[in-house]
Design goal:
It contains 7 helices and 9 strands, in the order E-E-E-H-E-H-E-H-H-H-E-H-E-H-E-E. With about 240 residues, the protein is of the alpha/beta class. It binds adenosine-5'-triphosphate (ATP). It comes from Allocatelliglobosispora scoriae.
């Protein structure tokens, strides 16, 4: 094993695997010869991709290009047809230890039925060792949710629901954020604020892989771009 590079920033202090898993050369994601066949169609073909600690990678491409498919492979929700996917030193396995270090925001919002916005955030916080009410309050404010904090997410607008999902992902410690079209349904001001927030997360040593359609949003988070087309991923 080559030299180990650890960066323990504000988002990472409570991380379960800091100091346990060695990230060779700061590599957080390593994809080698990844192919994925869905419904008899080769969606991804021999993809090779690396993401380092503190990097934001934006997957861009037309509808159906395979961006969500790639994110689902990184989250361990989809088994590749062939090739290797390594996340934080291991194959994504969906085990609790994996989810302690990785936060995933899917394209479709989901939440715990019967809980208010604040209760949802508190539950996510408790699950990941964040019990500080002031921290929950700060996130509620940061994501513009104060007036709807006691409401059920089902009664929120689509942009407000997206904010709840993003707040939950950024509230807890993690080392890698996987975000499927996080800018979707957000107004322009909040898109640009989210870009700044993700940049700060990366400055703290976290890595982000996101799929996005909004070029201005991708620029606002200073992301490296990877174009997904014809089953291939071409990085800048
Ligand atoms: N379960 C499935 N069975 C068969 N085909 C699938 C399945 N899931 C996805 N696909 C196909 O795989 C291709 C890639 O889909 P994917 O959702 O990854 O695209 P995307 O780049 O995220 O698109 P969008 O920008 O519209 O979100 C599409 O042609 C889609 O129809």
């Amino acid at each position: 094993m080559k030299s180990c590079v650890f960066w323990v920033g504000p988002n990472l202090r409570n991380s379960s695997r800091v100091g346990v898993i060695a990230i060779v050369g700061g590599m957080v994601v390593a994809i080698r010869e990844l192919s994925v066949e869905l419904g008899g169609h080769l969606v991804l073909k021999d993809v090779h991709l690396d993401v380092t600690a503190g990097e934001i990678l934006a997957l861009v491409g037309v509808n159906g290009a395979g961006k969500s498919t790639l994110l689902r492979c990184l989250a361990g929700l989809l088994r590749p047809t062939s090739g290797q996917v390594t996340v934080l030193g291991s194959a994504p396995d969906g085990a609790p230890a994996f989810w302690r270090d990785v936060a995933f925001v899917a394209e479709e919002p989901s939440w715990y039925p019967g809980l208010t916005v604040r209760e949802h955030l508190e539950l996510v916080g408790i699950t990941h060792g964040v019990r500080d009410r002031a921290r929950i309050d700060a996130v509620v404010d940061e994501f513009g949710l104060r007036e709807r904090a006691e409401a059920s997410p089902i009664t929120l607008s689509s942009g407000q629901r997206r904010r709840v999902m993003l707040a939950a992902a950024l509230l807890r410690p993690s080392r890698l954020l996987l975000l499927d079209e996080p800018e979707q349904a957000l107004d322009s001001e909040f898109r640009s604020r989210l870009g700044g927030r993700l940049s700060a997360y990366a400055d703290g040593g976290g890595s982000v892989v996101l799929a996005a359609h909004d070029a201005a949003f991708v620029r606002s988070c200073s992301a490296r771009q990877a174009v997904v087309a014809d089953g291939q991923v071409d990085c800048e």
